[in-house]
Amino acid sequence: MTFTSRTPRVVAARKLQRRRDRDQSGRFLAEGPQAVREALASGVVVELFATADAIEKHADLAAHAPVVSVVDDEALAGLADTVQPQGLVAVCEQVDVSLTDALAKRPRLVAVVAEIRDPGNAGTVLRTADAAGAGAVIFAGDAVDPYNGKCVRASAGSLFHVDVVRTPLDVVTPLREAGLQVLATSGYGADDLDTLADDGVLRQPTAWLFGSEAHGLPDDLLDGADRQVRVPIYGGAESLNLAAAAAVCLYSSARAQR
Amino acid sequence: MTFTSRTPRVVAARKLQRRRDRDQSGRFLAEGPQAVREALASGVVVELFATADAIEKHADLAAHAPVVSVVDDEALAGLADTVQPQGLVAVCEQVDVSLTDALAKRPRLVAVVAEIRDPGNAGTVLRTADAAGAGAVIFAGDAVDPYNGKCVRASAGSLFHVDVVRTPLDVVTPLREAGLQVLATSGYGADDLDTLADDGVLRQPTAWLFGSEAHGLPDDLLDGADRQVRVPIYGGAESLNLAAAAAVCLYSSARAQR
User: Fold this and answer.
1) In this predicted model, what pLDDT tens digit does every residue of A156-195 receive, in sequence order?
2) Which of B234, B250, B252 to mutate to test the interface with A (most CBs of A within 10 A)?
3) Mean pLDDT of chain A
4) Closest alpha carbon within chain A to B235
5) A126 within 8 A of A137, measured Cβ to Cβ
6) What is the number of other CB atoms lying within 10 angstroms of the CB of residue A188?
7) Residues in A 224-243 with any Cβ partner in B closer than 8 A
8) Distance CA A132, CA B234 (A)
9) Is it the case that residue A85 has pLDDT exceeding 80?
10) Is A50 left (phi over 0), alpha (psi -120 to 50) or beta?
11) Chain A residues closer than 8 Å to B154 by CB
């Protein structure tokens, strides 16, 4: 039996494109072979919607899903967020953990995105933090939903690799209590990233705080952090974009902590 | 007199949203106060289209434009690429220079984007390269047009700070002849970025080659480069996105060259 866009299970899954429905159900959508593979490996797939063609092409993935529902092209397009969803959309259980649980593992590198609204930026930071070996990425305050379709896609599977945490803004104290120095990024920071690297400061377990490009970090986080750090600008640019700044900071820490 | 979307000068300017018309005319559009300010400082503005409100708000910019044409909201919206263009769109002369001219200045850091199609990615690399102190950014082969609206916006003014070059793909020899070591980025590179930094290799004048996320660098560039370099992956991610990888590589060079 092939489901159509009117089949109740498809209609219900499609609602997960809205944050309210994700929040209420504790589920989200992951689309495309890469994300579906990572979701399956994490054991969070509830149901895999796939076209007949995609099941044939990705038989290995279909074989590992607890439930596979065949959908027609229209139903799949309605579930997917992209123009070319490659035939696969999985309903997944949300994977985030509590701040306490994430910090109990004593991660040596943590990224905090505070009040970041752009899902593509947040997903890219998630991917970069994972690549740099961070144990956790914390979405603090009124940040984008990590299960937003664009964020899931930009994370390129990293949503399933690192501990994702959603918390209120006041994260500095618990981070410090978990043995992490707290470094706030700011274009006007008193400390220069390269100098901190030279002085060995980055060898310590570190939580990096990143704010939105438009507004920077909230004052409470800037003031509460151990240091305010700027990425040096060697040329004519006024600043780096968020994803680039996060890449430079997180990789400086990763390099120092090797 | 207020121009409307049917005024011939507005109609002609709007055509610059198309690559063909940009290529033919040697002009492009820059929108929003930041880009317009940088374009004015570079002396490349031919005509500034602005709403009456924007002229009042940005009187300093209007005062420095050779020609200011007042347009109604509809005409401005038609010229702009974004939903909130903030009332200003400038017609500019293209700023790119020849490879020979750019290399004659003996830059110590150069970024090459080869066959990169995504304008947002290309613009972000331009901005990051500028921040890292690169002297030139080279768009090689069948790459995105640097004057694409999205690229101009993502560059956040850096299009006007660094030497932008458009060339065919065979850039390795001229780069090397200009005293630059040529480092090709690749997920499978034999050399690890951190090891190169430790060994002092990054202190030398360097041209970094970046390929598209989907296809990587063309074989000719990979094979022709002095080294193939991978950014180390410390966590579960398969790779970094292009902008993040470029940020890590360019800043590693900037740090080593201080």
Assistant:
1) 999 999 999 999 999 999 999 999 999 999 999 999 999 9
2) B234
3) 95
4) A133
5) yes
6) 8
7) 231-241, 243
8) 5
9) no
10) beta
11) 241
Token output for A193: 């990233």
CATH topology of domain B8-93: 60s Ribosomal Protein L30; Chain: A; (3.30.1330)
Contacts of B236 in chain A (CB under 8 A): 130, 157-158, 161-162
Q: Is A121 on the interface with B (CB under 8 A)?
A: no
Which part of chain B has CATH 3.30.1330.30?
8-93
b/e burial code for range A83-110 (CB count within 10 A of at least 16 → b):
eebbbbbbbbebbbbebeebbeeebbbb
- CATH class label, A99-257: alpha beta
Shortest distance, CA A112 to any CA of chain B (angstroms): 17
Residue A33 has pLDDT above 80, yes or no: yes
Instruction: Output the six-digit token pair for A225.
Output: 């952090």
Enumerate the CATH 3.40.1280.10 domain ranges in chain B, comma separated: 99-257
Distance CA B157, CA B241 (A): 22
Q: What is the ipTM of this complex?
A: 0.94
Spell out which residues of chain A touch residue B238, defining contact as CB-CB under 8 Å.
156-157
Does position B82 have pLDDT exceeding 90, yes or no? Answer: no
